[in-house]
Amino acid sequence: MLDLAIIGGGPAGLSAGLYATRGGLKNVVMFEKGEPGGQITGSSEIENYPGQKNPGESGFDFMSTWWKQCSHFGLTHTWANVTGIRKNEDGSFDILLEGDKIEKAKAVIVATGSTPRRAGFKGEDEFFGRGVSTCATCDGFFYKNKEVAVLGGGDTAIEEAIYLSNIASKVYIIHRRDGFRAAPTTVEKARKNEKIEFITNATIKEAYGDKAGLSGLILNTQNGERDLKVPGVFTFVGLNVNNEILRLEDGFFICDVVDGGQVDVDLKMQTNVAGLFAAGDIRKDAPKQVVVAAADGAVAALSALSYIENLH
Q1: In this structure, are strands 28-31 and 76-78 parallel, antiparallel, or unpaired?
Q2: What are the start-end ranges of the H helices in 215-273?
Q3: CA atoms of 205 and 272, how far apart (whole Å)
Q4: Residues recognised as catalytic
Q5: How confident is the model at residue 289 (pLDDT cuts 50, 70, 90)?
Q6: pTM of the shown model
Q7: Can you name the residues that pair with 132 across neighbouring β-strands?
Q8: Kind and range of the H or E run holding 102
Q9: How high is the pLDDT of residue 66?
């Protein structure tokens, strides 16, 4: 039986693995169906992590050193797709894996994070991957010297618009309000960028194109419809928490969740189920910042250590 199962390999999961193994747990496995790093590896720029050696580096470069450090004390990475978690009568947990495999653990930390939310405009699904994207780092290169649009008003949207301005000939930022959730300094930086144009109090009504891909967007604005002819649009309108592994056969969750599906935890990252912890973007009130996710992982690991010690 595992001492601790960590589900998710982003900053929260990696940090949890580091603190758990360094704290003395010998049998700790991090389940992640891909390479460790998490969603942040798709970010074009990280510049606000305390002590960062190279502010402004990409998320991929930033996370590239984490696994070596976090595995130094014995953390193991298992490439597996976790499909569920069940608690047994003896207090242990079953980790259900794809292929009807089961791993048992004394405690579990869930750090599965979140995924980009769809904006919901007509044509979004039809042209997803053919002009509609949620990753500027992944797809920005395809729009070199072309005009593109960014939908959203948070930090990610504005930061990615700035990143795209280094590639595209022009970037339109489309936002449904005048005000922005992004940090004022980030917004000001974008406003000073000559290649960025703000289109506020506007929404995307429809994306249109042909077999070759996206041709443009029909916007609803204060002055009526506007035809914005762009071959690419990047949407940053929030995230959906990846909580499906916490759902039971009857449709309910194994632990308490709040509106929106985030896991309800206390300051120790403990859920209402003894031995089950949640950290990072999946937990309630998560600020969606790498430094916080890493801290969550550390807290969850320390709490798990205490929980496991008290089992004996």
Answers
A1: parallel
A2: none
A3: 42
A4: 135, 138-139
A5: confident
A6: 0.82
A7: 128, 233
A8: strand 101-110
A9: 95
